[in-house]
Design a protein that fits this description.
Layout (H helix, E strand, L loop, with lengths): L1 E16 L2 E6 L6 H5 L17 E6 L5 E5 L7 E12 L16 E13 L2 E8 L4 E8 L2 H23 L11 E7 L9 E9 L10 H15 L13 H7 L11 H4 L9 H13 L16 E4 L5 E5 L4 E3 L13 E4 L7 H11 L9 E3 L4 E5 L3 E5 L4 H11 L5 E3 L10 H6 L2 H4 L4 E5 H6 L1 H4 L23 E9 L10 H8 L2 E7 L11 H8 L8 H6 L2 H11 E2 L15 E8 L3 H17 L18 H19 L5 H7 L9 H35 L7 H33 L5 H8 L4 H7 L4 H33 L9 H41 L21 H32 L16 H31 L4 H14 L11 H14 L8 H19 L4 H58 L13 H36 L16 E5 L4 E3 H11 L14 E5 L6 E4 L26 H9 L8 H16 L5 E5 L2 H13 L4 E3 L5 H7 L5 E5 L14 E4 L6 H8 L11 E8 L3 H16 L17 H18 L17 H9 L17 H22 L7 H7 L4 H10 L2 H26 L1
Parallel strand pairs: 1-5, 14-21, 14-22, 16-20, 17-19, 17-20, 18-19, 20-21, 23-32, 28-30, 28-31, 29-30, 31-32
Antiparallel strand pairs: 1-2, 1-8, 3-4, 5-10, 6-7, 6-9, 7-8, 9-10, 11-12, 12-13, 15-16, 23-27, 24-25, 24-26
Helix pairs in contact: 4-16, 6-7, 7-8, 13-14, 17-18, 18-41, 20-21, 20-24, 20-32, 21-24, 24-25, 25-31, 26-27, 26-30, 26-31, 27-29, 27-31, 28-29, 30-31, 33-42, 34-35, 39-40, 39-41, 44-45
């Protein structure tokens, strides 16, 4: 506040009136006041304390306008600042001589204020009464000027802005300036200038028209002059701000016994009674006990005169008294936001029973709709469709005396009268409770609002019906799951807002889906003014005001707050860790490797590239996508679009583990052969580089050597390919490989569909073999070509010499080999084409006589018209038939032309494909014309046109005439010619049709039959003749129908043959292209760079191929192991069991330690001595297949792995019994669909047997996994329904056969009550616990009578473990514990209630911090994982990802010596074998000498071969002596 009084010296005063300026300066300055205070003739009297806001405008001389203050009421505004300046005359100046009738007060408008010098100021004012502008120039001490300059500057700027505004927007300027010039008081000579800056009471700055321009400046003025008002908190809102601000009734409040007895059949919990008590207060039944009765955001203050007022910086508003309702926070109703499962519906039912309406019989006025409506005592409940029936059940259970009706929307005009009567106001008035859904409300929008007045041309057929919902004044309107209205702009929210009501309630356990602004929709529905109508006002609320608003409007209890009041059975949470099968483990490892490569990361999570760090946007996005894929893989290989595409399972939704393994084998085999093909091509290019080098004297031998090297590699793959095809043919029980070819080339679409799946693998194998045969053909061809070039080079080979003859022989030999391979490549397509061509040849002699024959004229007058019509249409059809035969024969001739490659008289040129394309253009045109003329014949026969065929022909003709030659299509000249011929043969409308002739004949017969029945002899004769004609015409019609049907079939045969011929020539062309020249011109010198590049590619491809071979061996080993389970695995070197081993490409397995120790010295396989590189060995891990179950521990400060044993972790309750887990694991299933799916199926079957009738909720963030699970469970005969199924909720509740309910994160399950379930299966751990709490709250809620158990399934040693750890750590942090620094030691005695309470606190905190709609990504991408957690999820649990190349094993010295001894033993055994030491199997001999084992080990260790030989010789002597003794005993 500012109140300043000062004296200033007047130097100059200038008066301007009617563009005339009168200066008064120096000693005469005060004379100006004589004119200023002079009375104005005709001016209204002025009262010093009755001036007000401007009522009119005046024009200044400079063109600007100013406001004029006529009347003023000082009690209606607060004084922000008051500056009083006494204009003191100087020594040389004389005081003004004022007349007795002078004005005591001159109201002025402050126009401007400026500071010319440090001690000199100028300001301008305007006297509206005399239309005079007064300019003052005064001076004072600088400190004096400083005391009021800022205030005058603010006042002048306010006045200037107000003056520039238009009359329509002037009231939007809140602060205003008041200025007046006062006569000197008695006894004084100094006039007084008084300036006030005021703020009117009750005017709000927010929401005015000019707010966006003046808001900041005016708010700054308000905060400057009311500095003690709360400063707006600029920190962003969080969801916790709402949950922290809600009202929690104190436990000490007095509750009426009437509330406890409101529901006779239900006992309300104490906290529910307190909630109902608060709700009754909100509805005005009980008095409120609110200590703070001031409006939201207002705080007490004083203006500069000491007057008491209340200021809101949020609303930009000042008020004087609290006697008005400055906001509607005292409205009847509010937000009931009890935590999920605490009985919000029961509280509302109790409220309905306690507070009923005494309503008048006559209509009441609704100010919101501005119309009269019917009064009702009913409660309207608007709810999601999925829980509407649940509301009906709850009301019937707790308050059976209340009548309930389900309103399904306005009835259609064509519905029954009963349905029309139900959708009326009168019908709805009969019930206590009316239920409807948000879907119905959305459809009511056009029936709820009156349409705009429009002049209609025609009168409406049906009268518009209003929605009965808006024609009733409801006692109470409730929005259940009110978060669905969000911002309040949806159709449902619009209708809900305008429904007349006395009380309004927004009910939701999670009222915020996105952020705090979701409350806007609720405030709009509740009509909480001014926040509902002023959109930007809610956003301006500071945190203190926000808490004040929410604490009045919303109530919420959490489970941890009222645990002492609750009586819900306990819930146990058990983590079940499921190991991958070996197949799944291999697939997951491969996916993890792909993830590392795609994200530019090493297996330990460190970046591989400096420009792609962990914070790079591309890396982050890739990590996010791959995390989703890895999580989906942990569930099933078919979860996620990318995973399904990777397996090529577009049309298959579910595969068993063995089918997945086969797919992995096939994919690896495909990759291997692709790399092999690229390697062979690179080897061939090396040969090309030599053969195209001009500077080499004899490049041919080196090129041949390289081609032969490539050919040798090709032969290996061709051989293995043939073996694979034969094995698959044996598996399919095919008598010959041609059987598969016939199925692949089947003409029938039905046959293709039927056998495509069966022969898919053999088809893939044949294609693979073909690719290598093409390479073999190319190698042979190029080798023959090198022999030809060498022979043709006279510098190297003398013509007709022995070498020449040998080269010529080799040339022919290799070319013959290439030709043989070429024939094999073309054999299949050629056979199929020849078979189809033979079918076409067989058609040649068919349909030769297709014309309509003439009918013998038998006389007859009545039938003559029929014959005339027949003659006309017959001529048309016969002309068409002749042209059809011509074009048909032409087509057959082209299709039966000999294949070029099969014609011995023609030599292949490599241009066969292009030549065939030219012939095909003509063929295509003939087939199109043939199709068109068949359609024309059908028109002539039936009288109906084929518009599609005609349209296609018209478009083709149009294209053929196009100026752009590239758009003319096939053989345009021929097409135009045939189209012209066809046009001349088309039947016209006057020609009729053959079917019309049949109809005419039948009509004549009908007419004659009637007359013949009356004994008309002439008619009888005519009838006989006509009947003969009719029989012949009918026969013609039937014949033509059959002909057309056969011709349509022939079209398909023509098309198939054409495509087969084209495919044959395409393959011929492709084979020719594989042996084209490497370059157009020879290289002047040997291309060293290209040769190095190709040899480098060969080396790279070889390494990749070795890796694929090792993996292929491993995958095949997995398949064998699955078919023939093995016992304990023992190493072939140390004979000890192992879990971590190595598999070689030759198929042998050893423990990891032995193999790598051996390989460092020998570089071969210990058993078969096959040479091995590091890439030839693959590490394998045999997992412990035991499923472990451990109850979640929320007491221990550590965050152990779920796989930890129970001895390593402390459980709050007794965990699941081992005997139960053993029973679950021993349940046999018919098929295996993956570890997790199988385990869940076994668990459900176990529950069926051990807890009959129990039901389970299965929750996953991935909806498509639930579909996979549904298929698997149905195959295991487990009843399933889901939230997305029609009537799925009702089936789960009432059908005993339905044992589990599928619930996904994207489906809205809010408010769903499934207390009939006692088990919850969480299919995967979630990093956002708020998501899983949505599922758990469906069963762990009021009404649950049994103890519940939540099972979380985790796959060990995957990203799921890391995600689980993050989730648990987060909850521990909410419980106030430091999971990192805890020592791990815990007190054995655990306070169970305290632990449960802490867990409830953690869960409540998660819900507070969670924006539920933002926790799940769009599509099937699962939950949102923030950037900070991505790396932790992927690499938080280190996996066994080490490579054989990076092998390092830490062993003790004793162990190392033992291993080295074994290796040396094997080395010496090899030396003995190499020295031809007697004995078939030295290894067996040495191992069998038990007594001499120590001596053998010593000999090996010392390297004494002679000692070893001596031991072996002693063994032989002992055996011989034993044999001799046995012989003597026999004798």
């Amino acid at each position: 506040m500012a109140r300043v009084s000062a004296s200033v010296s007047l130097h100059d005063c200038n008066l301007t009136r009617e563009d005339k300026s009168i200066p008064y300066s120096g000693p005469d300055a005060f004379r100006a006041f004589e004119s200023v205070f002079r009375p104005v003739v005709g001016a209204p009297p002025h009262h010093s304390e009755n001036e007000g806001r401007a009522k009119k405008r005046r024009k200044l001389t400079n063109g600007s306008s100013a406001n004029i203050v006529d009347t003023f009421d000082p009690s209606q505004s607060a004084v922000l600042a008051r500056i009083t300046l006494d204009l003191v005359p100087g020594d040389t100046q004389t005081s003004p001589l004022l007349a007795n009738d002078s004005r005591a007060t001159v109201p002025l408008q402050l126009d401007s204020f400026s500071r010319e010098e440090e001690n000199r100021i100028r300001f301008s004012t305007f006297d509206p009464a005399s239309s005079t502008t007064i300019h003052f120039v005064t001076s004072a001490a600088p400190l004096v000027i400083e005391s009021f300059a800022t205030h005058l500057d603010t006042a002048a700027s306010v006045g200037a802005e107000w003056a520039k505004s238009s009359p329509s927007s002037r009231n939007d300027y809140i602060p205003f300036c008041r200025c007046a010039l006062l006569v000197p008081p008695p006894g004084q000579h100094a006039p007084r200038l008084e300036v006030e800056l005021r703020w009117p009471f009750g005017a709000s700055l927010v929401g005015t028209w000019r707010a966006r321009f003046q808001h900041r400046a005016n708010l700054k003025i308000l905060s400057t002059y009311f500095p003690n008002t709360p400063i707006e908190d600029k920190s962003p809102w969080t969801l916790s701000d709402f949950y922290d601000a809600v009202h929690v009734p104190p436990q000490s409040c007095d509750i009426s016994t009437r509330i406890a007895e409101s529901l006779p059949s239900t006992d309300l919990y104490p906290y529910q009674q307190r909630s109902v008590h608060w709700m009754l207060q909100r509805e005005g039944v009980l008095p409120k006990h609110e200590s703070n009765v001031s409006p939201v955001s207002f705080s007490p203050a004083q203006d500069c005169t000491g007057k008491k007022c209340y200021v809101s910086s949020v609303r930009g508003m000042v008020i004087a008294e609290m006697d008005r309702d400055w906001d509607s926070t005292g409205l009847h109703g509010g937000i009931l936001a009890e935590e999920m499962g605490l009985g919000k519906s029961v509280e509302l039912i109790s409220l309905m029973c306690l507070n009923k309406r005494d309503f008048p019989k006559e209509d009441v006025y609704d100010p919101y709709l501005n119309k009269m409506v019917k009064a009702s005592g009913a409660t309207l409940i608007i709810t999601p469709p999925s829980i509407l029936e649940q509301w009906r059940t709850e009301i019937n259970r707790h308050a059976p005396h209340l009548t309930v009706y389900h309103y399904k929307g306005p009835a259609r005009h064509d519905t029954s009268k009963a349905e029309l009567n139900e959708a009326t106001v009168e019908h709805l008035l009969q019930f206590d409770v009316v239920l409807t859904s948000y879907n119905v409300l959305s459809k009511e929008l056009h029936h709820a609002k009156p349409p705009p007045d429009r002049s209609l041309r025609h009168k409406k057929i049906h009268e518009r019906r209003n929605s009965p919902l808006v024609d009733i004044s409801w006692w109470r309107v409730c929005l259940d799951e009110a978060q669905m209205v969000e911002s309040g702009v949806s159709q449902a929210a619009t209708v809900a807002r305008i429904i007349p009501r006395c009380n309004a309630w927004a009910i939701s356990g999670t009222p915020l889906r996105n952020n705090v602004t979701d409350l806007v929709g609720l405030l709009v529905f509740l009509r909480c003014e001014p926040f509902a109508s002023t959109k930007n006002l809610f956003a301006r609320l500071d945190k203190a005001s926000f808490r004040d608003l929410i604490s009045r409007m919303a109530l919420r209890h959490t489970k941890d707050q009222i645990r002492g009041d609750l009586d819900i059975p306990p819930q146990k949470r058990v983590v079940i860790t499921v190991p991958f099968t070996e197949v799944e483990e291999e697939y997951y490892k491969d996916m993890f490797r792909q993830m590392c490569d795609a994200c530019f990361l090493n297996p330990d999570g460190s970046p591989t590239r400096d420009d792609r760090g962990l914070d790079h946007p591309e890396t982050i996005e890739r990590m996010r996508d791959w995390l989703v894929r890895l999580r989906q893989t942990c569930l099933h290989s078919h979860v996620g679009e990318k995973n399904r595409k990777a397996f090529g399972s577009k049309n298959r939704s579910l595969r068993t583990v063995q089918e997945v393994l086969q797919a992995m084998i096939d994919q690896n085999d495909t990759k291997l052969k692709l790399e092999a093909r690229e390697m062979i091509l690179a080897q061939m290019r090396c040969g090309h580089i030599y053969s195209f080098a001009k500077d080499l004297n004899n490049p041919y031998d080196e090129a041949i050597s390289l081609y032969k090297e490539a050919l040798q590699t090709t032969w290996d793959y061709v051989k293995s390919g043939r073996e694979e095809i034969q094995a698959e043919a044996d598996h399919l029980q095919l008598t010959s490989l041609e059987d598969a070819s016939e199925h692949e080339g089947s003409d029938s679409e039905e046959d293709k569909d039927e056998t495509s799946a069966k022969f898919a693998r053999i088809t893939t194998l044949r294609r693979s073999l073909r690719s290598f045969l093409e390479l073999e053909h190319a190698c042979c061809f190029f080798i023959g070509n090198m022999h030809f070039q060498k022979k043709d080079n006279v510098a190297l080979t003398v013509p007709e010499s022995d070498e020449f003859i040998l080269l010529e022989k080799l040339e022919k030999e290799w070319y013959d080999k290439a030709q043989t391979i070429r024939q094999e490549l073309l054999k299949e397509i050629e056979a199929r084409t020849q078979r189809q061509m033979q079918k076409i040849k067989d058609l040649k002699n068919k349909h030769q006589a297709i014309e309509i024959p003439e009918i013998e004229d038998l006389g007859g007058i009545e039938s003559s018209s029929v014959l005339e019509k027949l003659d006309v249409i017959s001529e048309v059809i016969n002309l068409q038939s002749a042209k059809l035969k011509e074009w048909r024969n032409k087509i057959i001739g082209i299709l039966t032309m000999p294949l070029v490659d099969n014609d011995d008289e023609k030599e292949t040129t490599g241009e066969e494909y292009e030549t065939s394309l030219k012939v095909q253009d003509e063929l295509y045109v003939y087939i199109q014309a043939f199709r068109t003329i068949v359609a024309d014949m059908m028109t002539a026969v039936h009288g109906t046109e084929d518009t599609l065929v005609n349209h296609e022909m018209d478009q083709a003709v149009k294209a053929a005439k196009d100026d752009d030659i590239t758009r003319r299509g096939h053989a345009p000249e021929l097409l135009l010619k045939l189209a012209q011929e066809r046009g001349q043969l088309r039947a016209k409308s006057e020609h009729g049709s053959l079917k019309g002739v049949v109809a005419s004949a039948r009509q004549v017969i009908t007419s004659l039959q009637y007359r013949a029945d009356t004994a008309d002899k002439r008619a009888t004769a005519e009838l006989a003749i006509t009947q003969k004609y009719f029989a012949q015409i009918q026969e013609m019609f039937s014949a033509k129908n059959e002909l057309i049907a056969e011709l349509e079939k022939e079209q398909e045969q023509f098309r198939l043959t054409m495509n087969l011929r084209l495919e044959f020539y395409r393959q011929v062309q492709h084979i020719s292209e594989t042996v084209e020249d490497y370059k157009d011109e020879m290289d002047e010198t040997f291309d060293v760079r290209a040769f190095r590049r190709e040899t480098g590619l060969v080396d790279v491809r070889k390494q990749k191929i070795q890796g694929f071979k090792v993996r292929q061996t491993y995958l095949h080993n997995l398949r064998v192991s699955a078919i023939q389970p093995q016992g304990e695995r023992r190493c072939d070197v140390c004979f000890e069991p192992y879990d971590l081993g190595v598999l070689t490409t030759c198929g042998h397995k050893y423990c990891r330690d032995c193999m790598f120790t051996w390989w460092k010295v020998n570089h071969n396989c210990p058993e078969c001595r096959t040479k091995l590189t590091r890439a030839d060995m693959k590490e394998i891990t045999y997992n412990n297949n035991a499923v472990t179950a451990q109850e979640e521990d929320h007491d221990s400060g550590v965050t152990p792995s779920p796989a930890s044993s129970s001895s390593e972790r402390m459980s709050i309750y007794s965990g699941i019994r081992n005997s139960d887990m053993n029973e679950i694991n021993t349940i046999k299933l018919d098929d295996s669909y993956g570890s997790k799916v199988d385990m869940m199926a076994r668990h459900l079957l176990w529950i069926r047997n051990n807890d009959p009738g129990a039901k389970t909720i299965i929750y996953s963030q991935f909806a498509d996994f639930l579909q996979v699970l549904r298929l698997a469970l149905r195959r295991f005969k487990v009843g399933v329904s889901g939230i997305r199924d029609k009537n799925g909720i009702e089936k789960f509740k009432k059908d005993p056969a339905v044992e589990c309910f599928l619930l996904d994160a994207k489906s809205n399950s809010s408010g769903l009550n499934l207390v009939n379930a006692t088990y919850v299966f969480l299919c995967e751990p979630l990093i956002n616990p708020a998501l899983e709490l949505q599922a758990i709250a469906r069963v762990h809620r009021i009404g649950q009578k049994r103890a519940t158990t939540v099972f979380m399934y985790i796959v060990g040693n995957t990203v799921e473990e890391a995600i689980y750890d993050i989730s648990v750590k987060r909850r521990l942090e909410h419980m106030g514990r430091d999971a990192e620094s805890h020592s791990g030691s815990v007190t054995p005695v655990v306070n169970e209630q305290a632990i449960e309470r802490n867990l409830d606190v953690a869960n409540s905190e998660e819900i507070k911090a969670a924006s539920l709609s933002k926790l799940v990504r769009e599509g099937n991408q699962g939950e949102v994982v923030v950037e900070d957690d991505l790396w932790k999820c992927l690499f938080g649990k280190p996996r066994n990802t080490s490579n054989a190349n990076d092998h390092a094993v830490a062993v003790s010295d004793e162990e190392r010596r033992r291993l080295e001894t074994r290796v040396r033993r094997e080395q010496f055994l090899q030396q003995v074998e190499a020295a031809n030491t007697p004995g078939a199997s030295v290894a067996q001999i040495v191992l069998q000498i038990a007594d001499d084992r120590a001596a053998v080990e010593a000999a090996v260790a010392s390297g004494d071969v002679e000692e070893l030989r001596g031991l072996l010789g002693r063994r032989e002597r002992d055996e011989n002596a034993g044999a001799l003794a046995r012989e003597n005993s026999v004798d």
